[in-house]
Structures
1.
Amino acid sequence: MEQLVTRQQFNDWMVPVYAPADFIPVHGAGSWLWDQAGKDYVDFAGGIAVNALGHRHPQILQALIEQANKVWHLGNGYTNEPVLHLAKKLIDATFADKAFFCNSGAEANEAALKLARLVGHSKQPDQKNEIIAFNNAFHGRTLFTVSAGGQPKYSQDFAPLPQAITHLPFNDLAAVAQHISARTCAVIVEPIQGEGGVVPADPAFLQGLRELCDQHDAVLIFDEVQTGVGRTGELYAYQAYGVVPDILTTAKALGGGFPIGAMLTIDRLASHFQPGTHGTTYGGNPLATAVAGKVLDLINTPQVLQGVTLRHQWFIDRLNKINDQYQVFSEIRGKGLLLGAVMAARFAGQAKQLNQLAAQEGLIALIAGPDVLRFAPSLIIPETDVEEGLNRLERAVQRLVR
């Protein structure tokens, strides 16, 4: 029997790229987690918008077990049934003609940026290669994606970085119009900046980006790693904006907790990738795609998607009620079940402190920078669990205010 591990052993044995909480969750069910000591927590973090159907959903678990009893891995010299079923489901549900599967959002964005560069090179070799991205964006941790992300704190220590990436202000269409040119091969944008503070794009901004990309023959990439698979109340956020990208990246909720990512695109662009130009060992493996197929079946229904909008209102109403009493937030923003509570000026920089107090009260939430408490719970979280979680948040707010 294995010995009980402790939080201190993380410091002893793990490369220190994370600073996890003092407790270790060991069991989950629905929107609840329990730690080694048996303490319960309401989960409003969802593994950073990943556990879209909560923990240990019985139908997802069954899909995993059924596939595990067939074949786990083949390698990309062969295809498999679950990956083809999943590709067809995503194509039928979106603008896309083709899908590429990988293991994470960073890998999906890496594939999208490489494809955009390849398309640009096919038109003007060594000239059409500029990528426009946005300040405070987050696109992943590979060298290419961290360079495209607009947060120097994540990239500056790894210089020299990939070149020809320009960062402009988010939601500032005039800045893009002034800068974009024939050299631009792509614009990459999040419909809602998640890590950057839960900041939704203005509809006119995304519509303008579409028009500018068309004018300058540039590829429009939507990073929907965090907003995708029902998080905003649509299957993908672009569908609410009425703006269709050329490439869309998706991950996080797609596997409901099992690692998977995908890049979706149209035939005209997909044909630039040929055998050998890009690839991944594990991407599209039968276990991940069987699970993701079941996740998509469960989420892409009117009942679940409309339920996200209903749950959004539960959160907004109660958060506003808490704030009316304690004036701890200056704004509650976001869409669907990707929500950000912005700390009021007198509590500037204290989002992490509030999050730690919430954990002590038995609530797991997230932050998005020093000033935003972020929520990304299960898309099917029951109303009683929302109420209990927000009761615990209110107790944490009381302690912060005191």
2.
Amino acid sequence: MLRCLTAGESHGPSLTAILDGVPAGLPLAAEYIDQQLARRQGGHGRGGRMNIERDRVAITSGVRGGLTTGSPLTLVVANKDWPNWCRVMDPGAGADLKSRAVTRPRPGHADLTGAIKYGHRDMRNVLERSSARETAARVAAGTVARRLLEELDILVAGQVVQIGSIKARALDLTLDTEKLAAAVANSPVYCADPEAGAAMVQEIDAARAAGDSLGGVFEVYVFGLPPGLGSYTQRDRTLDGRLAGALMSIQAIKGVEVGAGFAAAAARGSEIHDEIFYRSDRGFYRSTNNAGGIEGGMSNGDILLLRAAMKPIPTLYKPLRSVDIHTKQPFEASVERSDTCAVPAACVVGEAVTAWELAAVVLEKFGGDTMGEIKERVALYRDYAKSF
């Protein structure tokens, strides 16, 4: 069983992820994780916090000599802003609980509901953990899963396909994965469509000038998945259910689609279902992929296609109305530091949580304490599925 817990606050000393169940013998370097952490911090439209942080991971257990040992991994990402907050966030009795107290809930955030739930009169206790800064730990953990999948020739990629009203052209999924990754890396908004990407940048700049924010849509693609991951036998074991839950757990994500998604609701069955064919050198296959690589709660061997919608960031330069929880007086909330658009960063997080969930179902199906065992079992299963 692959398990992960993250801990840490936005302005605490660090974020930590503890990973249990990672098999022994997986090649893993901190520099590999740092590449994904840097991607999470990038993208046109980010705010001032990204000028402070330069995320790097420290692997403090579970790896020796560049290989995982089978013991729990501990990943630590330091917060460089910590020295400015050490008195406010001090865990001891001498903490400064007054100078940065938060009594004015921000619309669209966890502030007010979290305060009611846990009885906090200072909502800093809520916003420090509900912050999307937490996703740095999840990207670090998901990158370990990505590394495991790569060893099995399963590749995860993603791109932004919409920001505000600007939409990218549909992606040709026959595109070489390396070319796709290069096109996304060369875009300031992580969009493989250069024309749409340029328009997205202009849209973000216009929103920033107006003191507003933008949401959007990103897609995650997974190449090389064998059929049969997930299950139809119990609904909590369906692959699409688990992946949807993982993507919906990302801050500000409000909708998830698999394959054709909501467009399938407007189509007739004869138009949307992927017909099945057979060829001796290929086995069973489909010429279309409206199902997005999942049928009956299981991967079907096609490219996995997931799509997630992110709402506009609710922390705005443009004031929004709210009410102070102590005085009950209305006020207009405004901020000095915020992202205008974080959809590119959310795409990286989406790739990470997808990789984590897929690594979990791979280990559930194939088992094994070492990468050698797992690779052998996956290869045998692929041969079996092809010759079925």
